[in-house]
């Protein structure tokens, strides 16, 4: 695995955790949380496969 792929594997769960934390605090609504998580996973998947 390249350094970029390792970075994606580390950063994506952090982004997801941050979105979930913001949703629990009431900052994000459920739709915003779902779109943030979905976008994060999709982007990470695309970038991971292109490396």
Using brief descriptors, characterize the structure shown.
51 residues, mainly alpha
Mean pLDDT, all residues: 94
Helix content: over 70%
Strand content: under 5%
Summed up, the helix count is: 2
Describe the sheet with the most strands.
none
N-end to C-end Cα span: 9 Å
Number-wise, the strands total: 0
Oligomer class: single chain
List unreliable stretches of 5+ residues.
Answer: none
Radius of gyration: 12 Å
* Secondary-structure element order, N to C: HH
Structural class: mainly alpha
General form = elongated
Task: Give a topology summary.
Layout: H1 3-25, H2 30-50
Report on the architecture of this protein:
The chain crosses the membrane at residues 6-22, 34-50. Keywords: Membrane, Transmembrane, Transmembrane helix. The protein is elongated, with a radius of gyration of 12 Å. The model has no long low-confidence stretch (mean pLDDT 94). The protein has 51 residues and is an all-alpha fold. It starts with a helix and ends with a helix. The protein has helices at residues 3-25, 30-50. 86% of the residues lie in helices and 0% in strands. It is built from 2 helices and no strands.
């Amino acid at each position: 695995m390249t350094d970029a792929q390792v970075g994606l594997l580390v950063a994506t769960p952090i982004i997801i955790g941050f979105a979930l934390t913001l949703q629990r605090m009431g900052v994000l609504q459920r739709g915003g949380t779902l779109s943030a998580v979905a976008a994060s996973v999709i982007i990470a998947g695309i970038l991971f496969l292109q490396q």
